Amino acid sequence: MVDANSLPMPEDRALTGFAPRLMAIVEVDKSERVYCAQPGCHHTVYKAIHVVREDDKLLVLGSTCFQKRFGSLTALGKAQHWGGNGKVLTSEERALLAENTQALLARFEAEEARLREEAEQKLQRLREELARRSLPRQAPAAAPFQIPGMRGMSLRGSFPWSWMMPGSSVAAFTLRDGSGWLRVQNKDRRQFIVPWPSFEGWEESLPPVVGRANLEVGGYEVVHVVDAIAYLRTHATGEKITGVWGDVTGLLGPRSSSPRGRSCGTGQRQSCL
């Protein structure tokens, strides 16, 4: 511990030009109390022990002597370490407080740096988890996409696409412009809105809310199924959710029909329906 007799008296501080700093407020077990370093004080303290740096020296003061020395308990502001919350010291830390106060403060600084790093890592993991949760949710792998009211319904009739999920439902829509569209699930569980029958320029017919045009499949790849279906329903004159392929052709017509007077020519890509 710093020799109290070597410390400047209060009347000398105005001449030295140093600025005292409150480094920490700590607490020890009552059985391990330490001596207050205030000149003339011979008391031991164990609660609210104020560690103060004056010039190049460190003082260990009881709260009463601290208040007498600096005018008030808040005169030096908040403690640099642990925010003045009265950190309880271990026996090892108590020994450092009495024998090597500077080493104790260095330990405080290292421990606080470690806690800050751990907190930053935890915050980063939280950010990553929130970002992951904000990604579009994929359909459960255990079952194909089902629209309410379609549970247990399987599609009967010939599948018009080899990539279609067997046993999945379809939703058919007739829009006001005469075009027909189907919500169809891929075997890889992606959802598509495909024109039925297909026609030239279909990839420019629907807005981005429905999805992105996938020329290989021949339909819009859906990002948000609920938003896509909501758009189609808003602009539809007819709708059919079914597991029977005949119901689809009954609403939209057979493959050979062509809305808007368009048809798939022989020179069009193979994905044309």
Question: What does this 3D model show about the protein?
Answer:
The protein is built from six helices and twelve strands. With 273 residues, the chain is α+β, with helices and mostly antiparallel strands. The longest helix is centred in the middle third of the chain and has 34 residues, at 101-134. The radius of gyration is 39 Å and the shape is rod-shaped. The model is unreliable at 1-16, 141-156 and 256-273 (pLDDT under 50).
Describe the secondary-structure layout.
Layout: H1 13-16, E1 21-27, E2 34-35, E3 44-45, E4 49-54, E5 57-61, H2 63-70, E6 87-88, H3 91-99, H4 101-134, E7 170-175, E8 180-185, E9 191-195, E10 212-214, E11 219-221, H5 225-234, E12 236-242, H6 245-252
Parallel strand pairs: 1-6
Antiparallel strand pairs: 1-4, 2-3, 4-5, 7-8, 7-12, 8-9, 9-11, 10-11
Helix pairs in contact: 3-4
Q: Which descriptors apply to this entry?
A:
single chain, 273 residues, alpha+beta, 2 domains, six-stranded antiparallel sheet, four-stranded mixed sheet, 6 helices, 12 strands, 27% helix, 20% strand, disordered N terminus, disordered C terminus
Strand tally is 12
Main sheet strand line-up: 10-11-9-8-7-12
Q: Give the percentage of residues in beta strands.
A: 15-25%
Shape: rod-shaped
Name the helix and strand elements from N-terminus to C-terminus, one letter apiece.
HEEEEEHEHHEEEEEHEH
**Computed structural class:** alpha+beta
User: How large, in whole angstroms, is the Cα Rg?
Assistant: 39 Å
Which percent bin holds the helix content? 25-40%
